[in-house]
Each structure stands twice: as C-alpha cells, then as structure tokens.
Task: structure prediction
Amino acid sequence: MYIGIDVGTSTVKAAAFDAEGRELKVAARPVRLGMRGGTVEQDMDEVFGAVVAVLEEVSGEAVELAGLTGQGDGVWLLDRDGRPVRSAVSWMDGRAAELVDRWLADGTFETVFRRTGSAMFPGCPGPLLAWLDSHDPKSLDAATAAVYCKDMVFQRLTGAPRATTDVSDASMPFLDPRTRAYDNRVVELLGLTHRRGLLAPVSDPVATGEARGEGLPAGTRLSNGPYDLAACALGSGVTAPGDGLLIVGTCLASLVATTDLDLTGEPAGLYISTDRPGHWLRAMPAMVGTAALDWVLSTTRIAHDEVDALLADTPPGANGVHVLPYFAPSGERAPFVEPRLRAELTGVSLESTPADLVRATCEGIGYAARHCLEAAGLTGSLAVCGGGTRSPAWMRLLADVLGRPLRVMEGEVGARGAVLAAAERYGVALDTGAWTRSTAVVEPNPGRAAYYAKGYDDHLARLDAARARARG
Result:
C-alpha cells in the first residue's frame, strides 16, 4: 500500500494506492476557513486533526511509504516545538493588498519578479510577513519558523527537530530559481532582513522521515513535498517541456512544464522549481476556480449535482449573461496581478434563468483558464484534474472554450503525485506510465470552439475595462 496525503484549502484527503497506481480507498475531511473583512485564516490544530483522521481511515498494516502535499503560500507560524503560534494565514487572505499596491507603484514588485520569477500577490509569504511585522510583531517574535501547510504537517507527523520546506513551496517569493536558494536581496527589498531567520531551510531534495504513529503506522517512511500544484503535475505525467495541466479546483491553476527560465514580459504567476534542476513549471494559478461556481450555486440554492442538467438547458453564450470570475477578496494574481479586481455579472434580465448564471460562470472560468494557459506558454498536450472533472458537461464546455483536447485525470491526482515523489526520493521503482494514465480524452466541438474563440476576445475586452475600473 502506498498513501498520498493532500492537505487542501477546504478539504483534507488521503488516498491509498496499490503498486499499479489503482486507488484502493480515499478518505476526506472538510476544514474551515475563517473569513472576515478580507482576512482568511485556518486553525492549524484542526487541519492536523483532519490529517490524522483521514490517515486512520485509509492506513493499513503494510504501508510501503507515504507522500505528503498540500496547499501553498500563506503563512504558517510555528514555535521551536512545531506548535502553532497563531492561526495560519491563508493564501486567500487579502489584508496585505495595500502593500502589494505600494510595491507595484514603486517598482519593488517588478524587481522581485525579475530576480525570482515570482509575481507577488497579497496571500503569498512576502507581503503577509511584512504585514504581520507591522501589525502583529509579537507573533513573529514568538515564532521560530514561517512555513507552509505541508511543512507543519510533516514536522508533527515525524517529530522532526526543526521545520523545513522544499524548493516548490519556497518558489514564492524568496527563492532564486537558478541557485535554488533564498535571494537575500529580495528579503531586504521587502523589509524583512531582521526576520530572515524565520524562513525555513530548503531541503533539496525533499525531506524524509519516519511517522511517529499518529494516523500512519509508526516507522512508515514519509516524504515532504512537493506542494499541491507541482504534485498534481507529477500525478498527471506533465513533465515534458510544453505539456500543460489545468487544475479545476478551489484555485484555478494552469501549469506548463519548461526548461526555459524567462523573467521578461509582464510579471505574473511564478516559476515553480521542481526536483530536477533546470526544469520548472511555469505556473499561472488564478485565485478562484470552483470556488466561483460554489458561490453562485450557494447563492441560487442550486445543488452541485444539478450542474450538468443546467449546462444542457441553456446555449453557448448563456443568453447574453457574462461573468468575470474574479471572486477572491485579494483580487487576481494570474496571468496578471490586480489586487482590487472583483467579479462582475452582466447581461442579466428578468428573463435570465439559473441555468444562464451557471453556464456564464463556467464559461467565465474557462476564459480565465485560456488566458492563463496562453500566458504560461502551452504548446503540447493538456491534462485536466480537480473537482471540476466530476462534471462531464463542464469538461465538454472547457474543451470547447479552450479549443483543444483535454486529457482528463480523475481521482486524487495530488495524492498520486505525492506518492510518485516519495517513491523517487526513496528509490522505489513504480510504473509512472500506469500511475499517470488518463481516464478519458474530451475533444472540442469545432463549431462551438469557433464560437468561443470570439467569446474569448470579448472576455478580454471586458477584463481590460474591469482592470481599469479596479485601478480607479
């Protein structure tokens, strides 16, 4: 048995696989997000308790090894014993938007991107640490490490004497992708030199340890990383330059494998360092994916299992209803950074139906994905994974909007990638072709693809106008 643990933003999952990559069992637990006035926080003890609970459901006596992945960014402050200093600040948090605005205006933002390939956004560690340094210095004083979600879980599962992270999580915003080490000039530019000691040491390759017996059998071999975006790329077999992955989850993440580190152009997204030096994932992780549809469904009191029928009940173009799906409190970060951007719903009349609202939202998310994938440099095949893949109608719509075939990866792809990373780290031979085999290929309809190509141009025009309004 091989176990992958994926500590997501709203759901914690563990999946058990056999040696051929077949899922044996999956367990999931929801975790709460505390949202108030643009702040988004999570209770670390609740998150860890959910990890232990799902592991107890799927673990057996003969666990060969386990791999860990989880949500990225945010700030998870730990003391010297690996215990929480305060609630974790989520990557969805918007409190540092004014700092990002200031750095955009004075050139700091662009300078950081040119050095690291990371376009900062309010919920990434740089702005959040700077905000905490000004508004909650006592928490930073009490902490010995500012880590990422999976790093906290790894330390508590293994009892490691100190917190560490890996190159994938460290990629935003302090890591130099060429040296794979922290860029102290970036730390200085963000006013954090006196907090430099909080940055967790980077384990390259990823850290390993043995489980202490919580959730996993004592002595189980466990590896820490990569974080969820890179783990999903591994689990989808996206490693050849030019191939891409679209993750239709809470975050709408577009990734393209590359060996070309290009720090020119409009600063946006990031370069995620991988376990292979000289290989990166050009990532355009838009802030909101399925979360946008979830909001529409909850607001209209429509159940998730009604989505496919509703998509069939209204034509392409949603009878004139349009959605710009930028629902995050911290604005947007890919393929551009606009902290003040908000969602827009237009073209609604008394004749508009719930089906129109649902289709317009799904189309808007598709247009945002196309924008991100083009900016990331997609030239090869495209895999798709995440909760959105459970809707066949949405997958057909996405293939049409993107105008290309989709290689659908169902199941727990992040957990699968975590296992493959652990196997590589421990020298355990697994058939990666079998582990990353797609479950279906969805082809676009030529007529609808042509229609959506024009719709995409309209989307970009609406977006330009919305960005201008956001800037005041």
The domain at 2-230 is CATH 3.30.420.40 (Nucleotidyltransferase; domain 5). The chain has two domains: 2-230, 286-408+442-470. The first helix runs from residue 44 to 58. The mean pLDDT is 96.
